[in-house]
Design goal:
Number of domains: 1
Strand content: under 5%
Number of helices: 17
Length: about 290
């Protein structure tokens, strides 16, 4: 369970739902965790990488208040959000942040993938767009806000846009599952860290919680498998609409892309999601 994106093991149209997440998450993550992304937000005048992160991820919502962003992002400590917002909207408008994130994504994908003008990327983009358009939006604010944006014309960017919608839709559903299970933001991180043997100090720093806040919830119980199942159930619709055969084709197309990005993106070597596609997806001959 990623308290921001979610991961699980329920079969969707005969395909493991986690296997889908493992493929579209790395493609989406270039949005924030690459040198190109940081350069684009630094050029706007952002004070640090986290201002850029909150500005780019929240920009589809408009000039959102820190309270709104804290609510929809869920697992960040309020003080961490307040350090970036609303100051980010004084640095640049939401539309400027949207332009900057697309610029960063374009540069990062071209560097990480080499060629982006391939039939495989175009095919993956078409499948991902169909799946993203089939994703329900009710109760999914980040997915809805991203889907309302114009679609990029270039296939590698259209694929990124679709992956972003799918990622945020899954994350919105994951937040709903956590709320329904009565698992709070800091508690979710503590449970996840314990289950995946992640360093509590690293997790606290990554999301802005104090030692005292962490210790208050560190020993609280929580049914993570139930949250995982609910997250996967809420994410079924796009892949059911796509069908088993085309979902499997999407997996085949995304596997080398996810591996290439994950193996080359140094910024994602350690992350709060415990995401390790190089280990989990590696197949013989993928980089030959």
């Amino acid at each position: 369970m990623d308290p921001c994106g979610g991961s699980g093991w329920v079969s969707v149209s005969g395909v493991d739902a986690r296997q889908l997440w493992l493929r579209f998450e790395p493609y989406h993550d270039v949005t924030y965790f690459t040198p190109e992304s940081r350069a684009a937000t630094d050029a706007l005048g952002c004070k640090g990488g986290w201002m850029g992160y909150f500005g780019m991820r929240a920009a589809p919502l408009g000039a959102a208040s820190p309270e709104l962003v804290t609510a929809v992002f869920y697992n960040f400590a309020p003080r961490m959000v307040h350090r970036a917002l609303p100051d980010a909207w004084e640095v640049a408008s939401p539309s400027a942040f949207l332009d900057a994130r697309l610029e960063g994504v374009d540069g990062a994908l071209r560097r990480l993938l080499g060629s982006v003008d391939t039939p495989e990327i175009a095919e993956a983009a078409a499948l991902a767009r169909e799946a993203a358009l089939a994703s329900p939006l009710a109760g999914r604010p980040l997915a809805a806000a991203n889907r309302a944006l114009p679609w990029p014309s270039e296939p590698h960017l259209a694929l990124w846009h679709a992956c972003t919608i799918l990622r945020e839709a899954r994350g919105d559903g994951h937040v709903a599952a956590l709320v329904a299970a009565g698992v709070g933001p800091c508690q979710a991180l503590a449970l996840y860290a314990r289950e995946h043997s992640l360093d509590p100090a690293y997790m606290r720093t990554a999301r802005g919680w104090t030692v005292e806040e962490w210790e208050e919830v560190a020993d609280l119980p929580g049914d993570l498998p139930a949250v995982e199942r609910a997250t996967d159930e809420a994410a079924r619709a796009p892949w059911e609409a796509l069908g088993e055969e085309r979902t499997s084709r999407f997996i085949d197309l995304m596997t080398p892309l996810a591996l290439r990005i994950a193996s080359a993106n140094e910024a994602m070597r350690v992350n709060p999601m415990a995401l390790d596609p190089v280990r989990e997806l590696a197949v013989p001959g993928w980089n030959t």
